[in-house]
Amino acid sequence: MAWFLLFLAGLFEVGWAIGLKYTEGFTRPIPSVLTLAAMVASVVLLGMAMKSLPVGTAYAVWVGIGAVGTALLGIVLFAEPATAGRLISLALIVAGIVGLKLAMPA
Fold this sequence. Notes:
Elements: H1 2-23, H2 29-49, H3 55-78, H4 84-102
């Protein structure tokens, strides 16, 4: 269950990171409220996951999911460049996330 909560926390992190773009410096009320709600949900879920996961692993996976998801959505939504170097780097982050999961004791 902790890994599922951590995954959800990472998705909410992607949501608030992308949401920041739409708030236009927190001058647009609806995107601002949604972004703040995603921030709170992300941190609360991360905290719940950390009840049973090591802090270093949980935080690294949370940040990794957020970084990869945000970068991919930046490519899709904002026409950011999808260069080979960026995509390889994102794949390395994903490999790190998978490695952290697999390295957890049973």
